[in-house]
Design a protein that fits this description.
Low-confidence stretches of chain B: none
Strand content of chain A: 25-35%
Distance between the termini of chain A: 23 Å
Radius of gyration of chain A: 17 Å
Low-confidence stretches of chain A: none
Structural class of chain A: alpha/beta
Structural class of chain B: mainly alpha
Helix content of chain A: 25-40%
Strand content of chain B: under 5%
Distance between the termini of chain B: 26 Å
Number of domains of chain B: 1
Helix content of chain B: over 70%
Largest sheet of chain A: 6 strands, mixed
Shape of chain B: globular
Mean pLDDT of chain A: 91
Largest sheet of chain B: none
Order of helices and strands of chain B: HHHHHHHHH
Oligomer: heterodimer
Mean pLDDT of chain B: 89
Amino acid sequence: MPLVSLSNIVVARSGTTILDGIDLDIESGEIVGVSGSNGSGKTTLLRTMATLVPPNAGNGTVLEARLGTPDIYRVRPLIGLAGHQATLVPELTLGENLRHFARLAGIDQDLVPEVLEVVGLADAAGLAAARCSNGMKRRTDLARLWMSSCRLLLLDEPEAGLDDDAVAIVDALIKRCVARGGGAVVVSHDAGALHGRCSRTREMKDGLLQ
Amino acid sequence: MTSTRQIVEILRRELLIERRAGEVITIVVPFAALALALAPLALPVDTDVLPRIGPALYWLIALLFGLQATMRSASQESEVSELEAMAGVDPAVRFAGRSLAAAVLVFGVLVALAPLMVVLYAPAPVPGWPAIIPSALLLAAGLGMLGVLAGDLTAGLRQRSALAPLLAVPLGVPLLMGSAQGFDYLARGAGILTWTLLLLATDLVLAIVGVVTARHLQEAKL
């Protein structure tokens, strides 16, 4: 059974078709790159695979959960999504954000100091997220993914706002997920950034995968 | 058990955010206190009407500003909804956690305003007044759920800040009646069971609506 299986998926919002019949299978151990220009539908594709956007038509399963059914709640903790913007509560510190996520997801919160060390933020654990730079917030997002045992990693423009050290963390994160038998999808407007990192790449254009 | 832990965790986060941001304490409560303090200025000074209308004004202002406190809580949702969803939190659990946090804030507003009302309006002493505390808790719970529901219904709309209270206030009328009339009956030495049951029934309806619609409403804004 593939990790992700999308068949003729259509997503439309406010009368605009964003995904126009997507077919995509992702097997265990695969790292799939999706490139495309701004507005081509890459982020919506990623959020559909993250089960956050229900399709208007077509069939799809993610980690054996059928999209658009209550099954998706069961698999969400096994999906690691990092979007354009870090998903943090601004009023909480970086450490509190990670502990909060850990407690919600049933992850051992004692892992927080360790993952903050991995992403190079051990000294910034007590800083409020609202006061951190975009790069620090994105590193915290990577720390969140590091401590969750996700089987499907979905990364949206993972290099945006990150320095070379942090990009190495992204690569380590992908390797770690694949080594566990999982898979990853990396989305970027820069096709060149995907080569060498991904086992195969597809291009997205006007809501269609080429 | 996991759901209970998640509800407690959401409650804890919301209260921590309020402690840091202080929006209810520094904005909502002072404005509510100001409304309570200014109301007598609109009345003739030589009347003895103040002690009689004080409790009614208190419940009305508690409804309006209590809902304002829940809207503050709801305003945080877009930033954390995705985080909660990806952590595997069921939408009904998210509704319960946020409603509980909103109810705590509303109850805080009620507690903060009560002494001010007593000082400004000097209502006649009500024997057995602690019997109104369960009604106040039910009012807070109801307003908490109503605020979260209204916030979810108007999520993503540009006019949200105006629409959410417009939607919530009329639906809060049974809560206002249950608490205000209950207190009035208590002051007259009558039983308040009917009014407490009205509050309880309203809370039950809101809880059922919230749980049943949680998946649709909360997923729609992701």
